[in-house]
Amino acid sequence: MVHFISGHPMVLDCKVFEHNQEKVFWKRPEWDQDPRVYTEVLLDKEDGDESYKILRLTIDQPDDRDSGMYFCMVEDNKDEAVVMADSTSRRPYRIHTASGDEIFSASEKSLTLKCPVEGTPHPEVFWQRGDDVLEPSTKYTFQDDGDVKSAHLEISEPKNADFGEYMCTAENSLGKVDVTFNVVNATLAQIPGAKSGANSGQGDPDAAQAIYQSQTQLLLFHILVTIPMALLHLL
């Protein structure tokens, strides 16, 4: 998987063998209906004692349309064969970070992080942990909030390795904002607002989570119409 940032060059490399280097090219089925501007360059590479060539595909100004599968093809007697395939997905570019909620987990079941987004056009939401863009898996499940896709992130059976910072990036055509969440392991006695009881010191397995209910909003999306266009381009 190759991640790219909108507006920054996207690069894919395909290893080429000498006997077919003149017959190799990049292909993407969507280009038949939606041609894109790109370049292909044959470059020399070295890896230890091995020397070879790569066919480099570059799209200088990628956007949403450039997410998906790409195929490096070789043509032999007018037949085409796939040399390699790679997929791409758009990755958010961090601008600035707003303070988000702190999530306290006292459960072995799951917890849900909710990206507090509103906006017109409806923003697209990415979730990250560190530099990794999170994808759906047995650990992570994404849920929509009305018309906002992937606004909620559910973490299944949180363990020690799952605690720490998570970031949601909300983006629409006019701008983007990041919100960070800190997921903390705690017993019920340590969770603000949690009910106390005989088992509070040990934690309550039925309490999936307790959240500081802040009113964090991505104000960027509320005031988009008042932001000068020049500033939006900088964002």
TrEMBL record:
Q: Which UniProt keywords apply?
A: Disulfide bond, Immunoglobulin domain, Repeat, Signal
Pfam families with a match to the protein in the record:
I-set
Q: Show the GO cellular component annotation of the record.
A: neuron projection
Return the SMART domains for the record.
IG, IGc2
Show the SUPFAM superfamilies listed in the entry. Immunoglobulin
According to the entry, every stretch annotated as the Ig-like domain falls at 1-89, 92-180
**Which InterPro entries does this chain map to?**
Ig-like_dom, Ig-like_dom_sf, Ig-like_fold, Ig_I-set, Ig_sub, Ig_sub2, Neural/epithelial_adhesion
Name used for this protein in its record:
Lachesin
List the source organism: Elysia marginata
